[in-house]
Each structure stands twice: as C-alpha cells, then as structure tokens.
Amino acid sequence: MKKNHRYCVIMCGGIGSRFWPYSRTSKPKQFIDFMGTGRSLLQMSYDRVMPLVPKENILVLTNAMYVDLVQQQLPDLAPEQILAEPARRNTAPCIAWAAWRIGAMDPEASMIVTPSDHLISGEALFADNVRRGFDFVEGNDALLTLGISPTRPETGYGYIQIGEEVEPGLNKVKTFTEKPDLELAKVFVQSGEFFWNAGIFMWTVASIKKAFRTYVPDIADKFDSGYDVLGTPAEREFIDREFPACPSISIDYAVMEKASNVYVETVSFGWNDLGTWSALYDNSPRNNDGNVTQQCTVLAYNSHGNIFAVRDEKLVVVDGLEDYIVADAGDVLLICPKSREQSIKQMVNDAKNHFGDKYL
Amino acid sequence: MKKNHRYCVIMCGGIGSRFWPYSRTSKPKQFIDFMGTGRSLLQMSYDRVMPLVPKENILVLTNAMYVDLVQQQLPDLAPEQILAEPARRNTAPCIAWAAWRIGAMDPEASMIVTPSDHLISGEALFADNVRRGFDFVEGNDALLTLGISPTRPETGYGYIQIGEEVEPGLNKVKTFTEKPDLELAKVFVQSGEFFWNAGIFMWTVASIKKAFRTYVPDIADKFDSGYDVLGTPAEREFIDREFPACPSISIDYAVMEKASNVYVETVSFGWNDLGTWSALYDNSPRNNDGNVTQQCTVLAYNSHGNIFAVRDEKLVVVDGLEDYIVADAGDVLLICPKSREQSIKQMVNDAKNHFGDKYL
Fold first, then answer.
1. pLDDT digit string (tens) for A46-62?
2. Mutate to test the interface with A, among B319, B339, B349, B353 (most CBs of A within 10 A)
3. What is the predicted pLDDT for the residue at A222?
4. Which of A312, A315, A359 is nearest residue B315 as measured by Cβ atoms?
5. B326–A355 C-beta distance less than 8 A
6. CB-based contacts of A215: which residues, under 8 Å, 6+ apart?
7. Residue in B315, B326, B347 closest to A299 by CB
8. In the predicted model, is pLDDT for residue B1 greater than 70?
9. What's the CA dihedral at A79, A81, A87, A92 to 10 degrees?
10. Which site among A301, A302, A328, A333 would you substitute to test the B interface, given the most B Cβ atoms closer than 10 Å to its Cβ?
C-alpha cells in the first residue's frame, strides 16, 4: 500500500484566559465541551481531521502541563504523537518542531496546521477544502492559508486580502491585515477581496523548512542540529534544552507576512474562533428565554440574553439579569456584563496580583 | 449548694428557607456563621445564655435531622440535652415537650425559650433583662414575653401593644399584632406603646403547663400521659409515637394570644430576626464599596450594595451589579435583586417542582 504522506498538526497549548474562570489554566478552553455534544473543542478538531490523514499521522502540540488532558481526551494517540512544549513560545517554534519532526520521519510529507479551540461547521466542505489544499501544496512550493468567506463585518478577526488568482478559489495573498474597525470591516466585506484569517496553514515539510531557513534561520539551525534525535527517545532532552531558547514569535509574523510564496484558499465552511464570550453566546443554542447555558441548569426569571457557563451541573436560579456572563468553575465565580467582557483580562490580572496563581 | 431552677430552651429546628441556597435544608441558617465571628447563630445563642443558667440546664430543641450538627457545634451538650423532634409541628408542641420534660425533673423550674437564629447585640443588657424576667415569672403566675423597643417602622415584624404597667418596664400585654404596613408601623413606633415581638418567652413550668392545660388540653393530656418516661430512656419511643400526632400550632396562637396572664418586659438590647437578606445586609459590616461578603472574597468593579453569600472561601469577581443577592452553596447559585427577595420562596418551590428535594 502506498505510504500516505499527509499529516495533521493540532495546536493545543493555549490557556484560554478570555473565558476565565470557566476556562482555567488547569483546563483551558480547548478541553471544554462548549457545544454540549460530549466532545471538547480539541476532540472535535481531532474528529474533523480523522477522515483526512491516517490517525498515526496526527500530531498534537501542547504544553507539557496538558499532556495528561490530551491523552485522556484522545486516548487513541500514541505518546510519540503528543509534542509537549516545555515552555510557551508562540506558534513559530512549535510549528518548526512539528515540521522538523515530521520531516525526519518522512521527508516527502505535507501537513495541515490547525488550532484546536475554534468552531467549524460544515465538516464535508472542510474536508473537500483541505484535500484540495493538500493537492495544491504538494504540487507547488506554497505556504497556503485558509481564508474564510466573511459573513459579517467582524472587528475581532484579522483579514487576508487576496491577490492574483492562480486557480479558481486559490489566490496569492496580497496582505494580512490587523483587526479593522467597524467601518473598515464593512468595506472589507463588501469588497469581496477580504477573507477571515483562520490560522489554518498547509504546506509541505520541504516548503516550510525552506521558509524557516530563509526568514528565521536561528530556529531552522536549532532544529537542523537535532535532526538525528527527532523522533527518537533522545528528542525529549533535546527539546527541553533547545526549545525554551527559541524566540517567542508567531508563525504569521515570522514567516507568513514575509514570504513571497504565500497563497490563500478561499473557503466557505462555517468558522468561528470562539474568541469571546459574545462569540460563544452567538454560536450556542438558546433557551426560550434567550439565555445560553453551559453545563448547568438554569431557572431564569426576568432574565434574558445571559450566558451561564457553570461547571458541574449546578442549578443556577437567576432573577433580573440582562446580558450578563455568569461563569463558575470550582473556586471562582464571575458575574460581568457581556458588554464589559474586554475587561476580564484586567480582572484576571487583578486576581493574579492579589492572590498569585491560586485562581488562574 | 442551692439547686438552680432556671432553664434555657433554645429552639433550633427551622430550615431557614428564606436564605436559600446559602442556607440549605442540610445546613440551615442557625448553623451558619453569618457574622464571620467563627460562631454560628446557634453558638452565639448558646454563648448568650451560658452566664444565665447552669450549662446542664440548657436544652436544645431541634429536628432529628440536625442532631449531629447540634452536637458538632455545641460539643458540651450531653445527649439528653438535645430534644430531637421526629416531625415538624411548629412551636407549641416542642415547647410543651420541653416544659413537661423539665417539669418531670424539676417541678420548681422556670425557663426561657429563645429562637436560635436571631441576632442580638448588647449581651450585658440582655442578661440583665433576662434575670429580671426570671425574677418576675418566679414571683407571679405570668407568661412573659420580651418586647424590643422599635428603632424603625419595620414592616417585617409582629408588634406587641403594652397595656397596664405592673412594674416599671413590665406591663400586661394588650394585643399581639400582625405585621403592619408602613403607615401603621410609623404610628406604632411614634406611639411608644408598641414593641417588637422577638419570640422570646419566660415562665415557670407550672404556669406554662397550666396554660397548656387550659387552652390546648389535648397537648397537655398527651404529655401528662408521658410523665413517667420523660427524661428516661423510654422517652424516645414515647416521643416518636406521640409527637407526630400533636397538632401543628404556634405557641403564640395556641397560648399567648388566648391567655389572660400574659406580660411583656420591654427591653432595649439590639435585636434583629435576620429574617431577610436585606436584614442580613443591614446588619453586616460593609466593604468600602458598600458590598457585604459572607465567607468569600470579592473583587468588585462598578458594583455596590450587593450581598455575596458564597461558601467555601470562593473568589467572586463581579462587574456592574447593584443591589443584588449572590448566594452560592455547593450545587446551587442564586442571583437575585435584593428588591425581589420575597420571590425566593417561589423560586425554592419551583426548584422543588422541577427537581424534587435535590437542591433544597
């Protein structure tokens, strides 16, 4: 049987602080069953790529502290499929590790890199798009990103402006943009030239290694020096020594915004980064009273537009609350208007300043 | 040494549903350390009467399900000092049991009957008032109640109207009143004739037994028939058989409102029945931001006038909440405006209708 050279790398190391305290350092966003389906966001990400690559070709990149959680939620993974980062160094170093590791085993490999904490609907469309992306990067020296057709003038996302079309639905990238304000976002959407940047990348190992060598040579050198140990029992010691010495830098900044062979496949499956409580509210089924409940039972009186994310099947009885976030996990309870969710980051900082790491 | 014939009966069988879910059936109001002093309301009640009667003369009347909690909180009590009611039958039957039991051991006894879930300040004044009350009932065939000098036109309490003065500060009772509306409460307070009914009673065993025999003869007959077993190991079986057959009736309705020898000692120690969340709020020290916290730590932003009663030293982070009750105990969380606290009873009923006894 022909060897399958397609791989999937699921990035799973985030701490999800925007959903604090429902998402805690000890069990961040990607490990939570936000949709009430019985599967966490990570498990849904895994399920989504299962039809696309052989299951032994799936790697999960995560922080060392989450290895147990990953093993628990994805029991089919062999230990060597979980790459445990000894330190948090943003996306470029961990993607490099994955690329060099895969390359050491299979120099002909192509790969998709995907976050584990986003919501995607339209699995069949997703699968078709990814297969087409694999075909494209396997035939071209291309760094491919997926651009989602925007359905609203979202100010919380970065956008990709498309350039020259190389095939229908496949374009050169003209620019990556920062998050726009509302006026600009409206212009973006109307233009038909701007797509949401979902942070999903595809390339061959050869192409991404070449890009690292060109734009981030110190990272490339570091992993080149580990060629003999990658995929062997000695890899752990190598990574524990070298990984923390990598610069903390995103793949977007390190590579994608610099390289000239960057392409975008414009896709139209449903996508949401679930980056905010409001996004979660908007993407969750509502009760008759317009409230969203996560893992709890709610008796609501004169209360609408709230999201109750309360662990452990607790009963929440609420009167006279409109458009609030009520989040509870163990020893922390948060009550905050949805309109003030941007301040949660500050609250987490305040909690840290007052109490250290106890409540993170 | 002369035998001390003074006794104290602490009533401790309530379920405190108005503070649900902070007060739960499994640990009601009187067992909670509301004041953050390290002593529950029951323990504070016990401490208050300790100087007034020998400690072996203190009896605690409680529901059978709370015997363990009472023993835990008052470890000095001997088992025979805890009278465990096999059923809830309001105050008259349990007071009768206590009177007949005490009388069987000590026919010359006098006694004070006091709730365990009220707040009293001014312990020295309380002690003076109670000693004077003992002196009065020991010299007169009197059913004495304590009337608190009202400090505001409270609509949540019953009032006692005083009649003829028999000694300074000791009057015949003219009438017991229902809870007045605000206008009437103002008139009451201005008149100087109306005092809060604290539900604290004093009498000799002889006087109260006589009153029961006159006004509730079936209860008197029942306990008369147990004369030989009260205070013996056979009492348990007698009570388990006879007590549930008693009518469920309050001492006020059964005796105090009917008898002609009812007196009131007007007192001025601080008293609050802690019958509502607002009463608890008003009687608790406030943080700088005007919030009251019970057993929890609060980081408050743009939030004032709230009461946070959250068990287990939880961290509560709150933004944009004014004048709410936030109560959490284990598997129930309640969020409700203070102004709507009257509806909590309905919420408890709804919870019961939906989920049975699980969350009570």
1. 999 999 999 999 999 99
2. B319
3. 96
4. A359
5. no
6. A254, A255, A258, A259
7. B347
8. no
9. 170
10. A333
Contact between chains at A321 and B343 (C-beta distance less than 8 A) = no
Nearest neighbour of B326 by CB, restricted to A297, A335, A337: A335
What is the count of residue pairs from A and B with beta carbons less than 8 Å apart? 100
pLDDT of residue B311: 82
**Which residue in the set A320, A326, A333 is minimally distant from B337, CB to CB?**
A320
Task: State the amino acid at position B130 in one-letter form.
Answer: V
pLDDT tens string A238-268: 999 999 999 999 999 999 999 999 999 999 8
Output the pTM of the full model: 0.84
- Beta strands A170-177 and A292-294 are unpaired
For residues A354 and B5, give the distance between their C-alpha atoms in angstroms, rounded to a whole number. 55
- Which tops the pLDDT comparison, B14 or B59? B59
**Interface mutation target, options B306, B317, B343, chain A, most CBs of A under 10 Å:** B317
Residues of chain A with pLDDT under 50: none
